[in-house]
């Protein structure tokens, strides 16, 4: 300390002089100064930095996140201490602080912040979803597409379908896709150029009042409208409002849309056309009619009260004959009673002694088809082929009903229409009440040009044809830009893409 003070310095230099003396006494050499020399780091060792990276990846995969302390703890672990000792790292440098860990994370290209939402892929490539998607795009390309009129992105018709249907129905198909979307009162644009003098204003909390829109779009006509009639439905969903838009509200809405579709076809399409009505694969769209075949809650034995309002419709025996599920009204012991699963299976020759109503918890083996009464009925053709109430309605009117694969909003071109309408909506002035908001929503929806809707449709078909050709989502991102003027991707698009890469 005396030496340091004689040089006009304080305790810091005194400590340094002490370190130099200890180094000289232990090695016989004075340490060299490091001024101007490169400051090395443990991360410069590739094996060490790789071990840190792999550990962080493993922790992130397991827990979903990690902290700077994760590195501190890992470096202090016995295995890493042994590694550092083998590399000749001095004892005082074998542990690090949280601040050092943060610097290391920056050096490894990590930045602290909120994770950004990426493309939603949950379930998109699930095995059962992919299987359904391939069946859907195969139907579309091989059955529907030849019967649909083709338009380029300028709205010019490039081909009308020609052919005949064996059932005598019109050959031409017109797609009338459906979807629902919700607009919120406080959903406004939040970005823009702001001057330094701008003073922040308090904004309304929450999303505000909501209006749900249910509508149908066609590539040729845009919104499904005929004269003063339109398929668009505005619904104020929620408690103490219009309630909730369920299958009960959907069916009359679809029936009205079919009326409008048929009236417009009769007026504008010589020779007529059949409607192709695709819907999202939502639970409300898949709901079955009240009397539809379902083994879900069937009792094993006869029941006087089960399934009486309404009674379940008849099934079909293996030979094709009609099978009643209720005893006749003149039955001596059980008039009008539900027969129960055991009797139904006995009439089909499928019941065996000791058969349970269902396996414990209804957790049957994945490959089992006849382990219990319920599972056996679930796998009967008439139960498997039971259609939803929505599909039965559409087909009863002579049209085609189909359902998009789950998690595949890119295949439904009305999703792009919602985006275009909401882009306008967010830029519009705030509204004071629900009446003004409803008028504003309708105006924004009406301002999306029909040509845009046609282009949205062509874009969706490019996705469909891409999946048909076996493309992945990554491939489709490139091919959509490369063939944006095409309605469908060429059959050699994938080959050409791979050659260019």
Write up what this structure looks like:
The chain has 18 helices and 13 strands. Helix content is 40%, strand content 10%. The radius of gyration is 35 Å and the shape is extended. It has four domains: 1-31; 41-116, no CATH class; 127-188 and 207-288 and 389-500, 2-Layer Sandwich (Nucleotidyltransferase, domain 5), CATH 3.30.420.10; 292-382, no CATH class. The termini are far apart. Strands 4, 5, 6 and 9 form a four-stranded antiparallel β-sheet that branches. Strands 3-10-13 form a three-stranded parallel β-sheet, covered by helices on one side. A two-stranded antiparallel ribbon has the order 1-2. The protein is an alpha+beta fold and 501 residues long. The mean pLDDT is 88. It has helices at 2-6, 11-27, 46-63, 68-75, 78-86, 98-107, 127-144, 247-268, 283-286, 341-347, 373-378, 381-384, 389-396, 414-427, 434-446, 450-468, 473-482, 493-500, and strands at residues 150-151, 157-159, 173-175, 177-184, 210-218, 222-223, 225-226, 229-230, 233-235, 274-279, 315-316, 322-323, 400-403.
Uncertain stretches:
none
Tell me which CATH architecture of the largest domain applies here: 2-Layer Sandwich
CATH homologous superfamily annotation of the largest domain: Ribonuclease H-like superfamily/Ribonuclease H
**CATH first level of the largest domain: which class?**
Alpha Beta
Structural class: alpha+beta
Using only CA atoms, what is the Rg?
35 Å
Note the main sheet: 4 strands, antiparallel
On the 0 to 100 scale, the average pLDDT is 88
Region (Disordered): 294-321
GO molecular function: nucleic acid binding
